[in-house]
Amino acid sequence: VEKVEEQLAGLRIARRCVPSEEPAYLLDIDTSAAAQPGSGRFVAVSCSNQSIRVYDRETLRFLREYSGHAGTLSGVRFAHACDSVVFSACGEGAVKCWDVRSAAQKPVQVFSGYPSNVFISFDVSCSDLIVCAGTEKVEKDTFLVFWDARGVTDCAGTTKEPLGVYSESHNDDITKICFHPVEPNLVVSGSTDGLVNVFDINKDNEDDALISTCNSDSSVSSLGWSGQDYKQVYCMTHDEGFCWWDMAQLDTEEPITLLHVVDARESVCAENHGLHYLVGGLYHEKAGKLFLVGGTSTGNIHLISCNTDGLSLVGTLCGGHSATVRSFCWSPTDESLLTGGEDAQLLLWKPGAVERSLTKKASLKISSSVQKRVRVHNTSLKSRKK
Length: 386
What we know:
Layout: H1 2-9, E1 11-16, E2 26-31, E3 42-47, E4 52-56, E5 62-66, E6 73-78, E7 85-90, E8 94-99, E9 109-112, E10 119-124, E11 130-135, E12 144-148, E13 158-160, E14 164-166, E15 174-179, E16 186-191, E17 195-200, H2 206-209, E18 210-215, E19 220-226, E20 232-237, E21 242-246, E22 257-261, H3 264-267, E23 277-284, E24 289-295, E25 301-307, E26 310-317, E27 325-331, E28 336-341, E29 346-351, H4 357-374, H5 376-385
Parallel strand pairs: 9-13
Antiparallel strand pairs: 1-29, 2-3, 3-4, 4-5, 6-7, 7-8, 8-9, 10-11, 11-12, 12-14, 15-16, 16-17, 17-18, 19-20, 20-21, 21-22, 23-24, 24-25, 25-26, 27-28, 28-29
């Protein structure tokens, strides 16, 4: 474990993408699995300007952009078995599926919701068979909507209707959905109602499908699976809390809560840098260990180790971002980390990498101009003082 912690702390910038002409916050990142050994991989990024940008995974060279989404994008996910298919969900009540090899601005498949649906979270099962999206609360209703995702690539432009919904288990916005990494029938959902629900969607109805309900006591911002055979569930909250549960203890007398930290900012003393927020978790399979990614408003990235006795700082990645980091994607194959932030930068970190300075100079000029735009309220305060 110590070796893994050293490796994480030793991550260095290997690549920066060339800044886009229209800077935007980078809200979510996903990478495709390589179809064959040696074949190229893709990175998809959802942006605050309602577009999806696609890059080459190794070089971070910009390939194409899909724009024209109505409403905020709530994430991007590549299909697990097909490295060129990427899904996105948006506020207009649809999950769209794109073929990243094609520059056509038309999705190859649209999964349409019910008329009142505004999707703010979604995921794709590890078998690529099911897509599930979570809605904002409308009047008294909040839904998990499910679709059959089979045959996505061979029916271009068609629209699919939902298989059905779960409507009883949450009573507020469903902010996060995460399918189990190896069991396609298991899915966990989190909501602003504080509940984290684990479902077995093979069951006939919602009541039977609900395996476990855990309460985070706060609005859920991020969640995931961890532990041996991924039997643990963890979540972060919008007020920077952290909860960690062991589903293997459900049928025993043992408590299922492994750790509950009310405010990670107070429990992780990151020296002078401080910890301002949590972004999400990464489960390191080789080490069998859960780490959290957090950071500061000035762009420092903190890597935090989780143990049942608390959280501890492993290391801080500095010199990359100049504003809040909003998204990351961990790659176990080459133990690298992709990060995206409010400074419009996409960075690739690798163990012991050395960055070529040419791209750095070019991007720093741009990021400072982005910062001026991002931090408008600061400058207006200064002018008032004068």
